[in-house]
Amino acid sequence: MLKAQGYVGSPQNRVDGRAKVTGEARYAAEFDAPDLAYGIVISSAIAKGRIASIDISSALAIPGVVQVFTHENRSGTAWLDRNYRDETAPPGSPFRPLYDDQVVYSGQPIALVVADEYEIAAHAASLVRIAYETDTHMTDLDIKRSEAYVPPKKRSGVKAPPSPRGDAEEAFTQAPVKVHAEYRIAIEHHNPMETHASTVIYEQDGTLTIHEKTQGPQNSQSYVSSVFGLSSDQVRVVSPFIGGAFGSGLRPQYQLFLAVMAALELKRSVRVVLTRDQMFTFGYRPQAIQTVSLGANPDGMLQSIMHDAIQTTSTFEDYQEVVVNWSNLLYHCDNVKLTYRLAQVDTATPIDMRAPGAATGVTAIETAMDELAYATGIDPVELRLRNYAEVDEANKRDFSSKELRACYQLGAERFGWAQRNPEPRSMRDGRELVGWGMATGVWEAIMQKTAARAVLSADGHLEVSCATADIGTGTYTILTQIAADIMGLPMERVTTRIGDSSLPKSPVEGGSWTAASAGTAVQIACQTVRESLFKYAREMDASPLANASLEHVSFADGRIVLTNDPETGVSFTDIMRARGVDKVEAEEKASPGMMTSMRYSGYSHSAVFAEVKVDEELGIIRVTRIVSAVAAGTILNPKTARSQIIGGIVFGIGMALEEESMLDHNLGRFMNHNLAEYHVPVNADIHDIDVIFVSEHDDKLNPMGIKGLGEIGIVGTAAAIGNAIFHATGKRIRDYPITIDKLLG
Amino acid sequence: MNRFSYMRAGSIEEAVKAASADSSARFIAGGTNLVDLMKYNVERPTRLIDITRLPLNTIEDTKSGELRLGAMTTNDEVAHDPRVQSRYPLLASAILAGASPQLRNAATTGGNLLQRTRCYYFYDTGTPCNKREPGTGCPATFGRNRIHAILGTSEHCIATHPSDMCVALAALEAIIHIAGPDGERAIPMSEFHRLPGDRPEIDTTLRPGEIITAVELPPEDFVEHHTYLKLRDRLSYAFALVSVAAALRMDAGTIVEARIALGGVAHKPWRDPAAEAMLRGHPASTERFAAVADHILRDAKGFQDNAFKIDLARRGIVRALSQAAAGTPQSQTDKRIR
Amino acid sequence: MSASQNYSSPALEKIPITLIVNGETRTIEVLPWTVLLDLLRDHLHLTGTKKGCDHGQCGACTVIADGKRINSCMALAVMKDGASITTIEGIASDGALHPLQQAFIDHDAFQCGYCTPGQICSGVTLIQEGRARTRDEIREWMSGNICRCGAYTNIVDAIEQVLGSNQEAGR
Predict the structure, then answer these.
(1) Is the residue at A22 inside a domain?
(2) In A205, A546, B203, C160, which residue has its Cα 20 to 30 A from B277's Cα atom?
(3) pLDDT digits (tens, 9 = 90+) for A300-332
(4) What is the pLDDT of residue A486?
(5) Is a pLDDT exceeding 90 seen at residue B252?
(6) What pLDDT band is residue A80 in, cutting at 50, 70 and 90?
(7) Domain Aldehyde oxidase/xanthine dehydrogenase a/b hammerhead, which positions (chain A) (predicted)?
(8) Is B281 left (phi over 0), alpha (psi -120 to 50) or beta?
């Protein structure tokens, strides 16, 4: 059925491409309103304590300044913590901006300066004087790790580590070959190119239209409704384009609160845009210290897996992610102990960042597996094949599909892995040492309950809609492809609307679940329209399709025709005219099958191969080649899919070599809060990236067999690079990012 | 940003006069550093004097064989000027190692000299800083100092000068031409920037009201044996952790003249004439280069995060001298280090 | 040109300036500290030019000023009085995409699209500069434009294609 025109599965240009290359695509801070006021946020200089005084008089004296909001003069908002909880909030008490005089982390918003013009607000903000009383803060995980605890309340949607199986301690003690090491991953910040922004348009009737950088328009809408006591029809959140997010838009960030607060108080439209340095004043990928112990026989067969992780969270919420579970999911072992703990530091609460947990945990296990490969003298690919997990052992479930073996094989072939001399320091290119390393990637294939609407107009135009978001992933395009295929329309005659809270219900966009969830919802809605239309066609007077059944007709070029006699049929327009309707519409929900999720574990997998060239003397590392072979079910659009994987790999290169938010523990403050000193990869850092999509048929997870691609590209990439660096130099660096100092040290 | 008044200077005299009359006025040209600092409220001038329309935007030969770069020439213009490329490739290479094409199109020769030092704390008004607010302390000394200085530091400041261009100018012994309330003068590059000492708020030896009018490159050009080697945390668009400008004149395998300037290691481009003298009269050899590096770094002092820079600088000096001696300067587009 | 102009702004007085934006002459009053980027986005409603870092560290704000690519976030509007500015809105002509815009679409050289206008303004100028020939050179001279979605290889492909077809046309 989806093969009618074959948009699905074929490389298609983005349907929003023209808008993006011409500058017509509008992002949250780019919507205008009459009499728009501009708000600038003032951030706390201290990490912990209280605001002794805020002197706003000089700022207020500037002509054009409308108000300076602080905890002292803000209007009433919700009293209860739970009113601030959004759909992705971890257990705890969410941060409440301008709530009181308490400072709980450095960079916390403490005032909002609102003026008629941006320039006036910027000037006035420089005149606000704040005095603090400081308390002792603590941001150092190396100190706080001694107080690490198992989170008492689990975060919704985050699987706790499974119960231990066998006797991992004893098996490790007995194992002839052992790897035991500590792995560290630095704090990272998402740093999407667009900083967080909200333009709150105060409509004449007092309702709010909010242009907001969010991965969940309905999540932001319900947050605003709940915090400010508004009914849901008083708040509409619209975000057609999002300038990247990578997780930072999963929760409503404080600029939304501040902009809405100011708009309601001033009865005026307000825009608040965070600065780049303020992008370091909310969620981040937590710092992790992991200990991995692998016990194996000389033939490489794992006898014991122990993986412990400690991560930072804030003092007010227990942020959690799945870090350690992946170890047993990837590798067969009878003696497994996986543990996960948190340590509180005086920072903002972490927030999911591209492949949360997996990017962290898989980096550790895949580095440890490379160490085991060297300890046993077994090729790293072969070692993984020997320990290949045929089933999800922790949950005693089969995989819905798993083509990881093919990933190893096809990736290795494309990379030329067979030419690798396993001896460290054995390969050179002129002055540079050459290293080849590999690692496995894995991410859960998730589907979430999602609704979509399809409306076919009498002119033969189809509109499909859903309140999900496209942060650059290509959702607009794949939904258009799916809808066009089902309805037999050219893509040009299908419009996809997303990024609007007034559209059919969708969870936040994230976790790589959007293609499967919104895609299936659109599929079902279009099928319903198709069925209605066909029913109408059969009921037409003298219908040429009167005796046909749905299985025997095709939808093509805006017509329903007999499949074996394409000359016989009727056009959509004629069907609707005959019926006397100007549109045919349907709204449908898609949900993951309960039985399926109880019987099967769904995951996407990858095998990542990396080549590095290292000027050892100077500590300069170049990642010259990456091959990533990905098995992720049905690939809806190989062109945008490839971009997703490339993007994940570039994130992984950043994680491996560059990205680190540096805390000054004396001040409790991130210090490199800018793009000059928080290094993300630039064009010169990125060389050849080769993506292979391994054919994988999955008929269990969802009708189209979609697994999602947003996360899998990063998972394993950092480990593959770290392993390549070991191969090149003989130096095992277990502390990411691997910077010059560590290579020289 | 603070409120300021704006004037567009019509002549050098007018610019100098306006600046002399108001100690919190600043000249502005490319703005790539000053506007940056003003947005952070680090610089809060009451008045900006726009000097971009002064007739200082030419590159000219002097009668005595120097090349004179007008202060308002952009980094891009200088780097791609055929005379600079053929006679001062070290300078062209250093400029192209810095910043980005966009910034090089705006940043000027004079402005590049006047870049403020790079330091997380100096740039963050939420923290103390002796350079920004004298007497408040230097949290970098016992905080995050990965990018900070290893040479010429003081207890008051360990910030580094971030320019690449200036490192090459130091090696080339450029002369900075100045106009001021007391007329014109010239400052040798080595005396233009200063070390922090107990006055870290002062970066250069310019006096109030003085304006840079030109940078003069001496005839000695080191065309055959030079390199600019920049070592950093990513392969482009990042400040140097350590950079080395090396320039040699060689005669039949013997080093006749040698210049070494370091970037990213001190409050100013770092020269050590005594170390350079160790090279004169000797053939190029790794052993001698290493001895020279050790000499340059004899008083280097590392802090919590940046001690690696001492080792990195040592290795960088040896490599750069090898590149210069071999006549194989570092390419700024091919990232393989030669 | 050399006549001095002395403005003071104690009472937030605005200064009149003239810019040629995408071929159209615009006269507008600005505060001395109005930055070109904010002038384009907030005052002229040309929001195609993006604010990514506001400090010359990402390139999202790249525009073409008098033929040169610059970071519009680092330029005071008042200092650009008289300049000719081309933004992303002025790259296509009469609705026909510039070859580089089409190449960006064809090579999927963007994802979220936020850095894209800056990448394209930078790439168009890089092609005009006529210096880049190799992929190494494209990479280095496009390194002033950060793409957090990581579309770099596709960006280089798109530029290389347009460079290649230009060279072919020039033969």
Answers:
(1) no
(2) B203
(3) 999 999 999 999 999 999 999 999 999 999 999
(4) 97
(5) yes
(6) confident
(7) 22-136
(8) left
- Is the minimum CB–CB distance between A126 and chain C shorter than 8 Å? no
> Domain residues for A488?
447-591
Q: How confident is the model at residue A78 (pLDDT cuts 50, 70, 90)?
A: low
| Cβ contact, residue pair C97, A191, below 8 Å | no
Considering only CB atoms, A193 lies closest to which of C45, C114, C154, namely C114
Structural domain contains residue A303: yes
List CB contacts of A230: < 8 A, sequence separation 6 or more: A208, A224
Q: Which two tokens stand for residue A253?
A: 């960030």
What is the least distance, in Å, from the CA of A468 to any CA of chain B? 36
Q: Are residues A553 and A631 in the same domain?
A: no
The Cα of C57 is separated from the nearest Cα of chain A by a number of Å equal to: 6
pLDDT tens-digit series, residues B279-309: 999 999 999 999 999 999 999 999 999 999 9
Enumerate residues 39 to 78 of chain B having a beta carbon within 8 A of any beta carbon in chain A: 39, 41, 44
Phi/psi of residue A631, nearest 5 degrees: -115, 105
Cite the DSSP H helix spans in chain B. Answer: 12-21, 34-39, 75-80, 82-87, 89-97, 101-106, 109-113, 165-172, 189-192, 273-277, 286-296, 308-326
- B93 touching C (Cβ < 8 Å): no
Q: Is C148 on the interface with A (CB under 8 A)?
A: yes
For an interface test with A, the pick among C22, C114, C134, C141 (most A C-beta atoms closer than 10 Å) comes out as C114
pLDDT band, residue A183 (cuts 50/70/90): very high
Q: Is C154 on the interface with A (CB under 8 A)?
A: yes
CB contact under 8 A, A684 and C139: yes
Whether A714 contacts A359, CB under 8 Å:
yes
Please indicate, yes or no, whether residues A441 and A467 belong to a single structural domain of this protein.
no
Question: In a 3-state reduction of DSSP, which class is residue A477?
Answer: helix
DSSP state of C41: I
Q: Say yes or no: A39 and A99 in one domain.
A: yes
Residue B77 CA: distances (Å) to CA of A463, A640, B50, B59, C121:
53, 39, 20, 9, 19
Is residue A711 part of the annotated active site? The answer reads yes
Please report whether residue A300 resides in a domain.
yes
Is A686 touching C (CB cutoff 8 A)? yes
Report the pLDDT value the prediction gives residue A1, as an integer from 0 to 100.
42
Q: Given a contact as 3+ CB pairs under 8 Å, which chains touch C?
A: A, B
CA separation for the pair B168, B259 (Å, rounded): 10
**Which residues of chain A are within 8 Å of residue B235 when distances are taken between CB atoms?**
622, 682, 684-685
Q: For position A2, what pLDDT does the model report?
A: 45
- Is the ipTM reported for this complex over the cut 0.95? yes
Residues of C in contact with B92 (CB under 8 A): none
Q: Which value, to the nearest 10 degrees, does the dihedral of the CA atoms of residues C26, C30, C35, C36 take? A: 0
Residue A534, domain CATH: 3.30.365.10
User: Sign of dihedral through CA atoms A44, A46, A48, A53?
Assistant: negative
The string of DSSP codes covering B74-85 is: BHHHHHH-HHHH
Judgement on whether residues A342 and A354 belong to the same structural domain of the protein: yes
Structure tokens, A298: 């000389």
Write out chain B residues lying below 8 Å of A132, CB-based.
none
Q: Which of A256, A275, A294 is the last residue of a domain?
A: A275
Enumerate neighbours of B (3 or more CB pairs within 8 A). Answer: A, C
B58 CA to chain A: closest CA distance, Å? Answer: 31
Name the class of domain B226-326: alpha beta
- Residue % of chain B over a pLDDT of 70: 100
CA distances from B161 to B151, B157, B272 (A): 12, 12, 16
What is the Cα–Cα distance from A182 to A363, expressed in whole angstroms? 12
Identify the pLDDT of residue A81.
79
**Within a domain: A454:** yes
Structure tokens at A454: 């399809």
Shortest CA gap B3–chain C (Å)? 7
